[in-house]
Amino acid sequence: MTGDPGKLSCAEFQAQLPELIGSGEDVASHPHVLGCDRCRALLAELETIAEAARQLFPSVEPPDEVWTQIESAIQREGK
Amino acid sequence: MPNSSSSAQAPRPIPPKGGNEPKRAGGADRSSSAARPDSRDGDVLARAQAGDHQAYAQLYALHKRRIYSLCLRMVGNVAEAEDLTQEAFLQLHRKIATFRGDSAFSTWLHRLAINVVLMQLRKKGLSLISLDEAMEPTPDEGPSRSFGAPDLTLTGAIDRLALERAVADLPAGYRLIFILHDVEGFEHNEIASMLDCSIGNSKSQLHKARLKLRDALRAQTSPEERS
Fold first, then answer.
1. A11 at the B interface (CB within 8 A)?
2. B49 partner at 20 to 30 Å CA-CA among A13, B57, B70, B107?
3. For B102-153, what is each residue's pLDDT tens digit?
């Protein structure tokens, strides 16, 4: 469908990136990436951002009052 | 300025799904790493559906962090996130009997919570791109193309505050998909189910969200590069 993947232009390769990344393929081994510094840098940065999101955004505990409010509202609705 | 009068700008509430959600393929599906509490949900869920308040409290305890965190990331305001969490779990209480187990419970619950968040965003009429628009942004609204861009410098550690700011500045639709996938760890098939979009669309929008974040982080590092 796309011919030789190693001969893709950067635009063609980047158009395929969402699917390649989303499919869980080893995109770093893609022939275009192996031969293109710019796309290799792009890929590394996107991975850095995704990794940072996992590490920098821990889940947060809601305060106990939220549950108190929920229980009160349930009781009101039950009446 | 926000243009809340535009119907295209209103986030689209997602219709509820009960028993007709597409089932994931077989037992070898990519069950989400995000759906961790589900293994403990089965018995508790059945009891909560039968009206056992203690079981409902257990469900709350299992899922409160992730729902609250989602709300907080989406609205960026603690008080508002608390209200939205409360509303999401109240809706859960009202609708729990309609859950038929055709999707993971956490997926279903997140879908419900997302609707609550989207309704809130619509009420506020924020100058945020709607979920619909995020799904099909115009070329001008999308992130910059990468080819031809200067070499990047986002290697190594990303500052937490910088990333938080960049995520907060994302259009709502992009932000939602980024949070669901990269922060919460949901798979694309689950996000597609939550948002009523295709898996390909979820992948595409996540990619665009990451590109926008990359642009924003680069701009924070070197503001002059943007011009």
1. yes
2. B70
3. 888 999 999 999 999 988 888 877 544 445 554 554 444 445 555 444 444 5
Q: Which chain A residue has its CA at the smallest distance from B61's CA?
A: A67
Question: What number is the ipTM of this complex?
Answer: 0.84
Measured N-to-C along each axis, helices B199-221 and B188-195 cross at an angle, to the nearest 10 degrees, of 100
Q: How confident is the model at residue B20 (pLDDT cuts 50, 70, 90)?
A: very low
Distance from CA of A36 to the nearest CA of B (A): 11
Say what the pTM is: 0.77
Cβ proximity of B153 and B217 under 8 Å = no
Site of tokens 């609705």: A77
CATH topology of domain B36-124: Rna Polymerase Sigma Factor; Chain: A (1.10.1740)
Here the tokens at position A54 are 């996992």
Question: Could you say which architecture CATH assigns to the domain B131-226?
Answer: Orthogonal Bundle (1.10)
| Residues written for chain B | 227
